Description:
Elements: H1 3-49, H2 56-72, H3 77-99, E1 109-113, H4 118-129, E2 133-137, H5 145-149, E3 154-157, H6 161-171, E4 180-183, H7 189-198, E5 203-208, E6 221-228, H8 230-242, E7 246-249, H9 252-279, H10 284-289, H11 293-306, H12 310-317, H13 321-343, H14 346-360, H15 363-381
Parallel strand pairs: 1-2, 1-3, 3-4, 4-5, 6-7
Antiparallel strand pairs: 5-6
Helix pairs in contact: 1-3, 2-3, 6-7, 9-11, 9-13
Amino acid sequence: MNEKSVKHNVDQELEHLRLHIDAIDQQIVSLLSKRQAEVERVVQLKKAHNIPVYHPAREENLISHRRNQGSKAGLDPDYIEEIYRRILRQSRAEQTAQMAQKGIRAGASILLIGGLGSMGQYFHQWFANAGYQVRVLDHKDWPDADRLCQGIELAIISVPIELSVSVAERIGPHLPADCVLADITSIKEIPLNAMLKAHQGPVIGLHPLFGPTTSTMDKQIVVVTPGRDSVGCQWLIDQFSAWGSIILQVDANEHDKIMSIVQTVRHFATFAFGQFLRRKQIDLPRTLEFSSPIYRLELGMVGRLFAQDPSLYSEIIFASPERCTLLREYLDSLTKNLDMIEKGDKEAFLAEFNKIAEWFGPFSEQAMRESTYLIDKLIERF
């Protein structure tokens, strides 16, 4: 058989195989469509009974079974897991979009104090789409506070941290006795105490761990700090659950201590690194040409901070004297390391490194897996 005939036969076989693959792809899409139809039935059932969208145990069990199935079929289980996590993510997004229209108390009146701010506008949209009657009280509307508060079942304080106490004191006398009073500031103990003093009805502290650019509440964490009358506040928690949020209930004091590390020190360290780069006039595009994916990821997180509203971060960093004290301790720890660097004491560095690695323990392995996943995704993108 000559070379031309061989090529013709190969081309025919390739075309035949590609047609088979195309047919399988059509079946996959058809099955995904059928799966989505079943998801729609699940949504209707969850909406009818106020069941949360996210069911972590169910998802992890499903992933484990599919990994085992893939392995037995000769497929890479990591590949199967990645596919199914994307399918489940899409499923949750579809459910969340529909559950966003499910109001636990649809028709109830809600007052957003500071509702013209970015987070106020964000929650205005979510509550309005769920069928609530949303009112807004901004700084110029205080003379009309009595009318705006008439018949409301929920008042949410969405103002800068430094105004939260005075706003709680000011709104309290206008609220109906059974109205839920809540706030969404990133510190909890001081605002919560202020609300408890200002209002004798149900009180709850909320801290959404996401910003106004978030397109979905799917798997977004909402911290809940109990105040008064947990039964009276439960419907609000149920509403966030219906939207797909993960509810984390914690004492206000513990919340503030943890968030001092999670937010304050982390944001300040990022700010300081960006400040250093600017003062040194580093050529950022040029550094990216030489960068590893992990550097690009780290620099991306720095750039992300400076692409946002600076007042948000100033509120977080300067929220309390305790946070300033913590930052002073952080800066002192950096200064102590300078002596080691100036002496060129590598042995001291290695000893300290090993102590820290031992303290991090198993989390280091988890961090390696998670960061590797993010790096791989970054490589795919760029």
